[in-house]
Amino acid sequence: MNKVDKEYQKLGHYILENGAKKEDRTGTGTISTFGYQMRFDLKKEGFPLLTTKRVAFRLIVSELLWFLKGDTNLRYLLQNNNHIWDEWGFKHWVESPDYSGPDMTDFGLRSQTDEEFNVLYQEQLTIYQEKILNDDEFSKKYGDLGNVYGKQWRSWEGADGQVYDQIQYIIDEIKRNPDSRRLIVNAWSASELASQLLPPCHYAFQFYVVEGKLSCMFSMRSVDYFLGLPYNISSYALLTYLIAHECGLEVGELIFTGADVHIYSNHIEQVKEQLSREPRSLPTIKLNSEKKSVFDFEIEDIELIGYDPHPTIKAPVAV
């Protein structure tokens, strides 16, 4: 039985039945609950990519590799047709003195209800994407998202003035001392929040080694149940597979711990549709065994096998 979709659906029902209505930064409104945990056995249950709707695995892979490269600029993602982060960079541009196009105030909400505006928005977004890809100066200024995940994971700046590669530390420490209780990566840097276009939602994770298996628990301050969480679950599962591969371990458990777990008010019907669907068998993944280091992997080195989900369910992103 596919317990991954079942646990995910259980959480969806819980939020709808017990959540409180809350306003939020985006102005969209949510149904929210505080504090929830899910556990997935990566070894027994298959790769945790939801089957009750199609989730774009290639986007998960390219985003994770972007983090692992220590990159914070959108160009790599756009080169790989990944648009997960576009809206935050676009917002930075249209709110700057350098922008002279049509008014894009509240573009996230307006594009959902005003067809005429949506045409203008899509035109400006395309201009933005092309400039990120082809204009080095523009890309440097408006394609960089600030000190987000890639920077924190690979180039954490300490109070001592030193720069720390947290991912390399984790790998080295697992190999040296697998029983360590300090296998932690932290992406929440209070002194750098102002320099991040979106402060980290999944802000910390910790590994645990026992009986030759690597488990991972990741913690999130803010959880978009419908759009974000399916990607987060699969991304941290993939990270666990990659770290285990380099360290000569099998995979164990993936544990999600969420603080403010919410459904946006304009996602409720989509959530109900997904909750009505029967889970299918989970896929598996295959890593290129010739790649030894986590940092050597490219998109084509990670193969998804046997994925047969229900159709995609579209919903707007709250920016």
TrEMBL record:
InterPro entries associated with the record: Thymidate_synth/dCMP_Mease, Thymidate_synth/dCMP_Mease_dom, Thymidate_synth/dCMP_Mease_sf, Thymidylate_synthase
Major subcellular site: cytoplasm
Residues annotated as transmembrane: none
Chain sites annotated for binding dUMP: 25, 181-182, 221-224, 232, 262-264
Catalytic activity: dUMP + (6R)-5,10-methylene-5,6,7,8-tetrahydrofolate = 7,8-dihydrofolate + dTMP
GO BP annotations listed: dTMP biosynthetic process; dTTP biosynthetic process; methylation
Domain of life per record: Bacteria
Subcellular location: Cytoplasm
Segments forming domain Thymidylate synthase/dCMP hydroxymethylase: 6-319
PANTHER family noted in UniProt: THYMIDYLATE SYNTHASE, THYMIDYLATE SYNTHASE 1
Functional summary from the UniProt entry: Catalyzes the reductive methylation of 2'-deoxyuridine-5'-monophosphate (dUMP) to 2'-deoxythymidine-5'-monophosphate (dTMP) while utilizing 5,10-methylenetetrahydrofolate (mTHF) as the methyl donor and reductant in the reaction, yielding dihydrofolate (DHF) as a by-product. This enzymatic reaction provides an intracellular de novo source of dTMP, an essential precursor for DNA biosynthesis.
Protein name listed in UniProt: Thymidylate synthase
Source organism of the structure: Ureibacillus yapensis
Gene this chain is encoded by: thyA
